[in-house]
């Protein structure tokens, strides 16, 4: 997870981070733990009203708030470092600047919105990517033939793209399919939630407006009516 966090931070903040560079950095670990706790305490709150938990000052609520505070504090440190570098003009336009820097320079979004979005992206990038990678490795360990094909595809794509990342992303079809299959079998988001705005009629069901609807991604990915051999790769 440390490596994934470092990669996400590189994309968001660019090279000169001055923080989170060391994978065993206790601050990085604290951030990862906070994201994990935030996710763990979010799931029960889909069923138990957060307002009630807040009123009772339940441990789950306190943990949730602590987790978001820790996430924002850590993201804020990274953001401050980028501000400082920008002010001191330490960043050269030649090196990769990071999403945060380019959003500030474009000057189109209010700073608070930039900060909120960057914090969300920093939190969103950790568990999702590291869990998917772990499951992908688990599935690939069972199919060594696919491993070889993937390696060959990535090497060929690298050669052909010659540094053009967009071009490379367009050619790695097998890798994309492997990630999609991993997410079908082991979806990071087990369910998706939405509130309906208007009445929905689906065959035998009538869903009233303002109803919380959960889409069971895990169950759907393993439904034999949709995937003939749901337990198998490429099912
Ligand atoms: C395998 C990887 C990932 C999966 C399966 C995934 C899944 C999802 C899903 C299902 C949502 C929608 C949740 C909802 O609205 O109900 C979501 C939203 C979001 N994800 Fe991811 N995600 C992944 C990786 C990432 C990464 C790498 C980042 C950031 C670097 C990220 C940042 C976000 C953000 C910021 C949102 C909120 C978007 C919005 O509502 O405006 N996610 N993700």
UniProtKB/TrEMBL annotation:
Metabolic or biological pathway, per its Swiss-Prot or TrEMBL entry: Lipid metabolism; C21-steroid hormone metabolism
Chemical reaction(s) catalysed: 6 reduced [adrenodoxin] + cholesterol + 3 O2 + 6 H(+) = 4-methylpentanal + pregnenolone + 6 oxidized [adrenodoxin] + 4 H2O
Entry's EC annotation: 1.14.15.6
Keywords: Cholesterol metabolism, Heme, Iron, Lipid metabolism, Membrane, Metal-binding, Mitochondrion, Mitochondrion inner membrane, Monooxygenase, Oxidoreductase, Steroid metabolism, Steroidogenesis, Sterol metabolism, Transit peptide
One Gene Ontology term, aspect cellular component: mitochondrial inner membrane
UniProt cross-references to Pfam families, sorted A to Z: p450
Protein name per its UniProtKB record: Cholesterol side-chain cleavage enzyme, mitochondrial
Any GO MF annotation of the entry: iron ion binding
Membership in a protein family: Belongs to the cytochrome P450 family.
Record function comment: A cytochrome P450 monooxygenase that catalyzes the side-chain hydroxylation and cleavage of cholesterol to pregnenolone, the precursor of most steroid hormones. Catalyzes three sequential oxidation reactions of cholesterol, namely the hydroxylation at C22 followed with the hydroxylation at C20 to yield 20R,22R-hydroxycholesterol that is further cleaved between C20 and C22 to yield the C21-steroid pregnenolone and 4-methylpentanal. Mechanistically, uses molecular oxygen inserting one oxygen atom into a substrate and reducing the second into a water molecule.
Record-linked InterPro entries: CYP11_CYP27_families (IPR050479), Cyt_P450 (IPR001128), Cyt_P450_E_grp-I (IPR002401), Cyt_P450_sf (IPR036396)
Main location: mitochondrion
Protein's cellular compartments: Mitochondrion inner membrane
Organism per entry: Limosa lapponica baueri
Gene3D superfamilies with a match to the protein in the record: Cytochrome P450
Biological processes per GO annotation: C21-steroid hormone biosynthetic process; cellular response to peptide hormone stimulus; cholesterol metabolic process; cortisol metabolic process; glucocorticoid biosynthetic process
Record bears the keyword 4Fe-4S: no
Membrane topology: Peripheral membrane protein
Cofactor needs: heme
């Amino acid at each position: 997870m440390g490596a994934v966090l470092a990669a996400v931070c590189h994309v968001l903040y660019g090279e000169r981070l001055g923080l989170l560079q060391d994978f065993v950095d206790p601050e990085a670990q604290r951030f990862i733990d906070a994201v994990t706790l935030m996710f763990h305490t979010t799931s029960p709150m889909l069923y138990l009203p957060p307002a009630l938990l807040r009123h009772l000052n339940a441990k789950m609520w306190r943990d949730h708030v602590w987790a978001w505070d820790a996430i924002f504090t850590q993201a804020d440190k990274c953001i401050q470092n980028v501000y400082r570098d920008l002010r001191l003009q330490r960043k050269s336009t030649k090196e990769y600047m990071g999403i945060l820097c380019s959003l500030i320079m474009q000057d189109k979004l209010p700073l608070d919105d930039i900060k909120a979005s960057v914090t969300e992206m920093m939190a969103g990038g950790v568990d999702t990517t590291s869990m998917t990678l772990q499951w992908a490795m688990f599935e690939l360990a069972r199919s060594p033939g696919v491993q070889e094909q993937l390696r060959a595809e990535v090497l060929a794509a690298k050669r052909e793209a010659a540094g053009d990342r967009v071009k490379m992303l367009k050619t790695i079809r097998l890798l994309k399919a492997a990630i999609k299959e991993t997410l079908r079998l082991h979806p990071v988001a087990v369910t998706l939630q939405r509130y309906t705005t208007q009445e929905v009629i689906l065959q035998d069901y009538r869903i009233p407006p303002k109803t919380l609807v959960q889409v069971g991604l895990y169950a759907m990915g393993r439904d034999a009516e949709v995937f003939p051999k749901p337990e198998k790769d490429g099912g």
